[in-house]
């Protein structure tokens, strides 16, 4: 046999299996939050992510200029990324949908106001040695954090609570809670900065499938 019949068969490549992102409960979030003091970048970064669904880089790159506490909105611009060890660079988002305005609630507004007071106190404490910048998430001396700072924080959380947790869990939980509460899927897509609604539907299919059944149940109830 001159020809090998198997040579014409395309062998599918192994697909990388994505790890399921953990959805945390409100009690679990509060337990995590209680690991850190108010006024720390750990505390405020967790609060922002849980209440907005913002990405890790977006939280790290958030500035006070982006936040309007009167209108209760956050205007998102380029996220912060770590380019190399010891360096911080503001990068352009993957798509224009990442540029968006997020409405925030009273709980986060209060937390942000308190955090600003702590930052002002630290400025007085460190005096001329304080690193002045406009970032929300900073170390006690004012130096900005990067996404590696957040990753290190999450590793510490895992060791303390002894369960799988990533910063993305907060984004995933935020969206899941909105869906379960009956929020509009299109509004959630815009809030998360997804490029199209299919991304939102696929990412949160575990919830949308339940919603489909609930929709049918509502119709059935209306005709009985």
Automatic annotation (TrEMBL):
UniProt keywords (A-Z) are: DNA recombination
Q: Is the keyword Magnesium in the record?
A: no
Q: What is this protein called?
A: Site-specific integrase
Mention one GO molecular function: DNA binding
Residues annotated as domain Tyr recombinase: 19-217
Q: Which InterPro entries match?
A: DNA_brk_join_enz, Integrase-like_cat_sf, Integrase_catalytic, Tyrosine_recombinase_XerCD
Cytoplasm among keywords:
no
Which organism does this record belong to?
Answer: Clostridioides difficile (Peptoclostridium difficile)
């Amino acid at each position: 046999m001159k020809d090998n019949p198997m040579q014409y068969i395309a062998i599918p490549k192994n697909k990388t299996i994505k790890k399921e992102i953990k959805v945390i409960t409100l009690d679990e979030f509060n337990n995590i939050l209680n690991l850190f003091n108010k006024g720390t970048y750990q505390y405020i970064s967790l609060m922002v992510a849980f209440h907005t669904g913002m990405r890790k880089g977006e939280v790290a790159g958030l500035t006070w200029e982006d936040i309007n506490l009167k209108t209760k909105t956050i205007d998102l611009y380029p996220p912060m990324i770590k380019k190399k060890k010891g360096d911080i660079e503001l990068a352009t988002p993957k798509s224009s949908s990442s540029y968006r305005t997020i409405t925030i609630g009273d709980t986060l507004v209060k937390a942000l106001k308190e955090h600003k007071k702590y930052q002002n106190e630290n400025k007085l404490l460190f005096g001329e040695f304080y690193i002045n910048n406009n970032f929300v998430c900073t170390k006690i001396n004012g130096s900005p954090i990067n996404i590696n700072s957040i990753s290190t924080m999450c590793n510490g959380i895992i060791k303390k609570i002894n369960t799988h947790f990533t910063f993305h869990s907060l984004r995933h939980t935020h969206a899941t809670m909105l869906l379960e509460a009956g929020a509009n899927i299109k509004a959630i897509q815009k809030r998360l900065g997804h490029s199209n609604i299919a991304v939102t539907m696929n990412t949160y299919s575990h919830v949308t499938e339940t919603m489909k059944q609930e929709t049918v149940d509502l119709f059935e109830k209306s005709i009985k």
